Each structure stands twice: as C-alpha cells, then as structure tokens.
Amino acid sequence: MATQYQNLSDYDSELMPDKQTVENQSYAIVVADWNPDITNSLLNGAMSTLTENGVLSKNIKVFHVPGTFELTHGAAKLINQYKTVSGKKKRLYDAIIVIGCVIQGETPHFSYVCSSVTKGVTELNLIPDSCPVIFGVLTTNTLQQAKDRAGGIHGNKGDEAAITAIKMANIVW
Fold first, then answer.
1. Catalytic residue status for 64
2. What is the per-residue DSSP string for 18-84?
3. Which domain CATH number covers 161?
4. Which listed residue (64, 73, 109, 154) is catalytic?
C-alpha cells in the first residue's frame, strides 16, 4: 500500500515479468463510478502501468459499476469467463483489478462497505484455479488522503494494483 513510508508507484522494472510474456495476457479492471475524480485517476494509473509493462491496450478491458460495494459482484462475473484456445479452455483474464474509493463519513456505512469489499475480494482469491483479483480500493479518512494516493504525494494506488496484477498473473508455482 502506498504510504508516507513506501510509495509503490516507484518500482524496479527489472523485477517485472518479461514484456513479451505480458503482451499476450489479458487484464480486466472493474472500477467504481462513486468518487469518480479519484477512481478515474486510479484507473488511468493502472492502465498506464499495464501498458508500460508490455500489456497491449486491446488486452485491457474496463468495466464500470456504480460503487465500491458492487466491485465484488463485477469481479465475480469476470472471474468465471473462459475462452477456447487451440481446443483448450483458458481463463479470459490473467488478472482482475478492482478499483474504488471509500471515504470515512459520519455513519458506519464506511466500515460496512470496506469490510464487505475486502472480504469479497479475499473470497474470490480463494476460489481454486481462478485468476488473481487485485484490491485497488482506497479506504481513507479524508478526501485529501484519497487525492494523495490517486496521483498525489503518495503516488497512485492504481499503479500499485497494476504492478501487483502483472506479478500475480505471472507467478510460476
């Protein structure tokens, strides 16, 4: 996570998977339309980082959902999509990134949404043989903290999510 101690928008490109491998991979991004100034900045960061690391633009699909709570459902719909390549069933996406922003308010709504989305993404990642689902959700106390993490002084968590997606999609066990 991008914090005052570590900005993961700055990364060592030498530690990233080979671009020739990545260019043939497909990535989905599910982005919440709530807090659009923040989520659009995170989306732009993720897309830029994916392409900078070899993912072809045509292999990045973006899906919009109304809010952060709906990210889990959007990702769940995509995680089970397959295509046939040379007669073999293959996952449509090598990784899915969910992008959202929840800012603390005066009610417990913040806690319920953050807890539900975190648990939902965790559960998706526990499905056997599924692609990784990357948590690119900001959970901040203030709008300024969100801005600081969406292209501000703490980098862009969208970059971090894209880096994580590429690395997770290319883990060899």
1. no
2. PHHHHTT--EEEEEE-SSHHHHHHHHHHHHHHHHHTT--GGGEEEEEESSGGGHHHHHHHHHT-EEE
3. 3.40.50.960
4. 109
